[in-house]
Design a protein that fits this description.
By secondary structure, the chain is of the alpha/beta class. The chain folds into two domains: 123 residues, no CATH class; 149 residues, no CATH class. The protein has nine helices and nine strands. Strands 1-2-5-4 form a four-stranded mixed sheet. A three-stranded mixed sheet has the order 7-9-8, covered by helices on one side. It has a two-stranded antiparallel ribbon with strand order 3-6. Helix 1 runs antiparallel to helix 8, helix 4 runs parallel beside helix 5 and helix 4 crosses helix 9. About 2% of the residues have low confidence.
């Protein structure tokens, strides 16, 4: 499969789901009681997949109802003494390989996307899924989320009935916590707004004009939704993430550019990594 075909296939799949009124894949991992953790990991290396690959593997796990979110290539399965069961189909994921080119006697390193194929451990015989780390108690998960929020240093004001990030004054407005259905939804909404906050010029300087153009606002909301989903997965927060008012804007973005979801997921991963680092640093200092 060529990368352009994968872009087209994934984008069409998301468009069809949104037009059918189904929730987007970035909120679905919390809709069941699967075991083995939420974030997809490579069975052999233990590394988490990132960016658009998270969405690709979340979608496949949801559709096939795999119990674990552990994946490996055909060769990795063989090397571990297992084999892929007959008739099983692989899931495509993408990775960027830097290619060196010389222009006007100057070397440039250009990322080239490549497609490769992975199988879930449930598709393999002779492979035993590794035990996932036990889920942290609710109180600990909430506490970790609040550590991240506080450690970011973001200026957050509570009051009113809307949640938003105001770039001109660099602050986040949040309704009172008591107005949210529960703590999970309060935290998920705060993480959404923090993802917006991360894109400020003196932070990640997230410029969406080249990729999303006139649909820059819808593109930024797409980044914030996916970034919040990645953060929720990292923290074990299960709040509702969908903002239904953005769906028409997302559809327009996706229909105009079949690479938009990949670009948004990449920027969302960058934002999630940036924000998650605050929690990791704070916990390390406390220890």
């Amino acid at each position: 499969m060529l990368t352009k075909d994968l872009f087209e296939s994934v984008t069409n799949r998301i468009i069809a789901e949104l037009e059918a009124g189904n929730p987007p894949i970035w909120i679905r991992p919390w809709k069941s009681t699967k075991t083995g953790g939420i974030m997809p990991r490579n069975f052999v290396t233990g590394r988490s997949y990132s960016g658009a690959n998270v969405l690709l593997l979340w979608a496949e796990r949801e559709e096939k109802q795999y119990a674990a979110s552990q994946w490996l290539t055909f060769k990795q399965c063989q090397a571990k003494g297992g084999h892929i069961r007959k008739g099983e189909k692989a899931t495509p994921v993408v990775f960027a390989k830097k290619v060196t080119v010389v222009e006007a006697d100057e070397e440039k390193h250009i990322p080239m996307l490549r497609v490769y194929w992975v199988f879930n451990v449930a598709q393999c015989d002779g492979i035993v899924p590794f035990e996932a780390e036990p889920e942290l108690p609710q109180e600990t998960r909430y506490a970790n989320a609040h550590v991240l929020i506080k450690a970011s240093g973001a200026h957050i004001e509570h009051g009113g009935d809307k949640a938003y990030y105001l770039p001109s004054q660099d602050f986040i407005a949040m309704p009172p916590r008591s107005t949210f259905k529960d703590e999970e939804n309060y935290l998920a909404t705060t993480l959404h707004e923090l993802t917006h906050w991360s894109g400020a010029g003196h932070r990640l300087n997230r410029d969406l004009s080249r990729r999303f153009g006139t649909e820059e606002y819808a593109g930024e909301e797409l980044v914030a939704e996916i970034g919040a989903a990645f953060l929720c997965a990292h923290l074990g927060i299960t709040g509702e993430l969908r903002h239904s008012g953005y769906i028409q804007g997302w559809l327009k973005v996706l229909k105009n550019d079949n690479r938009a979801i990949f670009s948004a997921a990449s920027k969302a991963q960058q934002a999630a990594n940036y924000l998650a680092a605050y929690e990791v640093e704070e916990v390390a200092e406390a220890a």
